[in-house]
Design a protein that fits this description.
globular, about 15% strand, alpha+beta, 25 helices
């Protein structure tokens, strides 16, 4: 292709040749040289216009103009490095944190499963509608084993359909007893997912030939390396899970951690369910939701065809269940694919993205203010361009190009930092989670989704902060600007002031929302750190025993628990031992429906089965009546809390009153216990009652041990006592105070995150406010000089400048307070008893913001007071 210069040169030569020939012809007709030249030019027309029209035919005009705008924009940004650097850093910060948090959410909800050819695998979730009874073990959008077989054997769209039960707990014996979370999977699991173990093999059909007869297991690479020191000879040997010996047949690839965000430590054939989970036979229940399904589609099969084909099968099964209809949620297989998972994830993700987007909004308003300030020194340049014929749209496009250049530079920098830092930050956080926290297999490395999001956000940001300044700067009063009149037209100054005030108010309002949210969460965290839960958790050890999952029946469980309590009670330093169905603040709840005799309505009430020693072990006194005795085990005796007694039996003596259970049994109140936050931190008014613990409660129980001395010694002694009774038993021993800490951890994480966002927003808002005041002072130097020359006091002028600066701050603060008051209910679950309209937060935060804003405004205002009036009057 010919170069631009060469094409232009040839065009000029052609025009010159034409004019010379036409001029020669005119001279031959008798014209003078000058007349001949003018006649040739008249005949040819406007040379410049012909040149432009010809070039437009030869070239792509919009691309040529874009290149011109880009070059010019780069030069203009280079001429004001201070504004450029400030703008780029603000954009990089705002876009970077948004891209980073999106990469985490992308890994959790948008990235396809980490398996070969994941685009061919879909998640299948049946959603049941109508009036019917169905059992659920896991999530309602799962299927039963018989339903899975029906879908697997009668579909025409899948190359294979797998089913699995996630999050299966098992105890690994042999040496140190270890709790694991694994997966029960159909025997085509590895074949359909195209996941071939690194060592050994996956499941084959014969492994699922008969329920409970093929005890084989595939281990994760992490478990193999961590527990078995990467022993290659482990394949073919046996390990013990839940007291059953399983033959290790394979070791999964390091990259494969399962099909759930929580990494799986092992995979066992689904037909071993009753053996691995002896509490209940899930395989035999044809009306039970407990299996997730994934299918690999055949070549060229669409999602619509999958829905149609499986819809026929589900409709056929619905005929066997009158009143039930089934719809199918089918989509690309990802983490959190099932409807229940997404229903919990999406609201949380929306709140997180909205919070981070607010910081970006502040950055946009900040940069828009900087662009408006910079435009004040370019007014004459813009006016000259308009007066020479440039269209308003052409000028807006030029200014928008400059904004997009800023956004692209900042967005690229911020996105690069986010893509580099967030995978490392996520790895650091997950590596420092508590030891009992499950391993997470979410990949937050950048992929196409993240890159597209970053690019789209960068473009949107550039347009967002550039469009208003560009539109305003293209509407100048040419006569005033070209005359160089320093006292600009009143309307021009008014519109500019209103726009800057609006941007400042926006920044302050958004900043106020984030700061108030942080203030409320910090208040909630402080309350959680200092609250008296109403019971004594100091020097109390908690032992959790789930003997039902260990294969114990009721009689064996009772014998084990009683022997353990006797041995632990004999330890030096142990003062008392108690039992409870739910330990205080253990996130373990039991709720039933009860009625008060004489009333028709049913009341949902949380309850607990406890031994007689429970109240003294945790320090909750019986304020009326009496506590339990061993004689109450089989009797209809209950103890209610104070608030429960007031709620159920207002203005009556609760002792002797009865409550009727859903079974029809009536229980009599023998005592009233002091209110304590044993169920939900921050809630003293939970309707709560206690039943006496019986042998049926021993299969799953908490043992609470009050001791004097060192916890480590007590915990070691408890474990040794339990293992002396059963070497393969899984015993979880922690401090009772750790339950309270578990409630504090989410609040602490959210409070720290919110505080960091609020601080970042405050910093950006203050930079914007400082820049706005500096710009306004620089534009009012002449006015200030006149006032001071006429005798105005410096203090009065300072007050005027500060009032003009703080007025948009007050407006923005008021709007932010109103917004936060309206949406603060979202934070209620993290406040632990602190009001969502807590007066300390709603008074303290606005005062703090106002004080800091006043300081940011005072600095440039004080500088203006030092201006010599004579110099100020001469400056324009």
């Amino acid at each position: 292709m010919k170069s631009r210069k060469r094409m232009l040169r040839e065009l000029e030569e052609d025009i010159r040749d034409y004019l010379e020939r036409e001029t020669q012809d005119n001279m031959e007709r008798g014209m003078s040289p000058d007349e001949a030249r003018h006649a040739a030019l008249r005949k040819f027309g406007n040379v410049a216009q012909v040149r432009e029209e010809t070039w437009e035919v030869w070239s792509v005009v919009w691309l040529e103009q874009l290149l011109q705008d880009t070059r010019f924009g780069m030069r203009m940004l280079w001429r004001s490095p201070g504004n450029t650097i400030a703008s780029v850093l603000a954009i990089a910060l705002g876009i970077g944190i948004n891209v980073g948090i999106f990469s985490v959410l992308n890994g959790a909800a948008l990235r396809l499963l980490p398996i070969p050819r994941p685009e061919q695998v879909v998640s299948v979730s049946p959603i049941f509608h109508g009036h019917f009874a169905r059992n659920v073990h896991g999530e309602g959008s799962m299927s039963s084993y018989s339903e899975y077989l029906n879908y697997r054997d009668h579909n025409h769209v899948f190359a294979g359909l797998v089913a699995y039960e996630p999050f299966v707990d098992a105890t690994l014996a042999g040496g140190t007893v270890q709790q694991l979370s694994g997966t029960l999977a159909s025997c085509n699991y590895f074949e359909v997912l195209d996941e071939h173990p690194a060592l050994g093999r996956g499941f084959v059909d014969s492994d699922c030939a008969a329920p409970g007869e093929n005890a084989v297991v595939v281990l994760s690479d992490a478990l193999w390396r961590g527990r078995f020191a990467a022993d290659p000879s482990l394949v073919g040997k046996r390990i013990t899970l839940n007291r059953v010996a399983y033959t290790v047949i394979g070791i999964a690839r390091p990259e494969f951690t399962g099909t759930e965000p929580v990494s799986s430590a092992f995979w066992v054939p689904v037909t071993m369910q009753k053996v691995l989970e002896p509490v209940r036979d899930l395989l035999a229940d044809d009306d039970l939701s407990w299996l997730a399904m994934l299918g690999r589609t055949r070549t060229a099969v669409t999602l619509e065809e999958v829905r149609a084909d499986l819809g026929v099968i589900s409709a056929r099964m619905d005929l066997q269940h009158p009143g039930r209809t089934t719809s199918l949620a089918i989509g690309a297989a990802k983490f959190f694919s099932r409807p229940e998972e997404r229903s919990h994830l999406l609201p949380v993700a929306s709140v997180i993205l909205a919070a981070f987007a607010l910081v970006l909004l502040i950055a946009c308003a900040n940069v828009a203010s900087l662009l408006l300030a910079r435009a004040s020194v370019r007014q004459k340049e813009i006016a000259v361009r308009l007066s020479m014929g440039a269209s308003r749209w052409r000028l807006v496009r030029q200014l928008l190009t400059e904004s997009l250049i800023l956004s692209l530079i900042g967005g690229t920098l911020g996105s690069a930092l986010a893509c580099w830092s967030f995978p490392r930050l996520t790895a650091f956080v997950t590596s420092h989670l508590p030891s009992n926290f499950p391993a997470v297999g979410v990949n937050v490395a950048p992929n196409l989704h993240v890159l597209v999001y970053a690019f789209g956000l960068t473009l949107l940001t550039g347009i967002a902060f550039g469009i208003v300044p560009a539109w305003r700067d293209s509407r100048l009063d040419l006569n005033t600007i070209l005359k160089g009149d320093g006292a600009h037209a009143g309307s021009e100054r008014t519109s500019g002031r209103f726009l800057l005030n609006s941007l400042t108010s926006t920044q302050v309002a958004v900043c106020m929302v984030l700061l108030l949210a942080a203030g409320l969460l910090l208040r909630g965290l402080y309350y959680a750190q200092t609250v008296d839960p109403g019971f004594d958790d100091k020097n109390v050890a908690q032992v959790f025993l789930n003997l039902r999952e260990q294969g114990y029946d009721e009689s064996r469980s009772t014998a084990f628990v009683q022997n353990l309590r006797q041995r632990v009670g004999s330890f030096l330093g142990v003062t008392e031992v108690a039992q409870a169905e739910c330990a205080p603040l253990a996130h373990d709840f039991s709720v039933g429906q009860f009625t008060v005799p004489g009333r028709a309505e049913k009341v949902p009430i949380e309850y607990n089965h406890v031994s007689p020693e429970y109240f003294s072990v945790i320090g909750v006194p019986i304020v009326r009546g009496r506590g339990f005795t061993t004689a109450d085990v089989h009797g209809p005796a209950i103890i209610v809390t104070e608030s429960t007694a007031r709620r159920l039996f207002p203005d009556e003596d609760p002792l002797g009153k009865t409550l009727r259970e859903y079974s029809g049994r009536e229980d009599s109140v023998i005592g009233v216990a002091k209110d304590a936050q044993v169920s939900h931190l921050g809630d003293l008014n939970t309707t709560y009652l206690y039943f006496p613990a019986g042998p049926q409660d021993d299969v799953r129980t908490y043992v609470l041990v009050r001791y004097a001395g060192n916890f480590g010694d007590i915990a070691k002694g408890i474990r040794e006592a339990a293992h002396s009774l059963d070497p393969d038993i899984s015993v979880d021993v922690i401090r009772l105070a750790d339950n309270l800490e578990a409630w504090r951890i989410p609040s602490r994480i959210v409070a720290v995150l919110s505080g960091a966002l609020g601080s970042l927003a405050l910093l950006l808002a203050l930079i914007g406010l400082y820049g706005m005041v500096s710009y306004r002072v620089s534009r009012c130097v002449r006015e200030i000089g006149i006032r001071m020359a006429l005798g105005a006091d410096k203090t009065a002028v300072m007050k005027l400048v500060l009032w003009q600066a703080m007025r948009p701050v007050f407006i923005g603060a008021f709007i932010g307070i109103a917004l936060c008051a309206a949406i603060s209910q979202i934070l209620a679950s993290m406040l632990f008893g602190v009001s969502t309209h807590d007066p300390i937060a709603f008074i303290g935060v606005p005062l703090l913001l106002s004080m800091v804003a006043l300081i940011a405004s005072y600095i440039p205002a004080r500088r203006a007071m030092r201006v010599d009036p004579i110099v100020a009057l001469r400056c324009e």
